């Protein structure tokens, strides 16, 4: 398991998301004081959810064709996406937000 430092807690206001440059690119979200992480690329086509998406509660909306995903589970909740996003564990340590991914 690899850990990547995604951002500082203060970089991510509640209701927002950030792209994390790694392979694969990840997205980190903060909703209701909790942190979540998923793959950043929409499963419909190649599009960054964190760079060009919008948050609506626990859902991220892809701005290209308006698919939605639940950031807690990765589940695709609106068409045209039918495949969910990978999700990843998040750890908060002090002011640092870490994502665990890979083997
Ligand atoms: S690329 Fe995301 S909905 Fe089409």
What does it look like?
This protein has one domain (2-101): Rieske Iron-sulfur Protein (3-layer Sandwich), CATH 2.102.10. It has a four-stranded antiparallel beta sheet, with no helix packed on it. It is mainly β and 103 residues long. The model has no long low-confidence stretch (mean pLDDT 96). A hairpin with a 5-residue loop joins strand 7 (68-70) and strand 8. The N and C termini lie close together (4 Å). Helices cover 0% and strands 49% of the residues. It has strands spanning 2-8, 16-20, 26-31, 34-39, 53-56, 59-62, 68-70, 76-78, 87-88, 90-93, 96-101. GO terms for molecular function: dioxygenase activity; hydrolase activity. Keywords: 2Fe-2S, Dioxygenase, Hydrolase, Iron, Iron-sulfur, Metal-binding, Oxidoreductase.
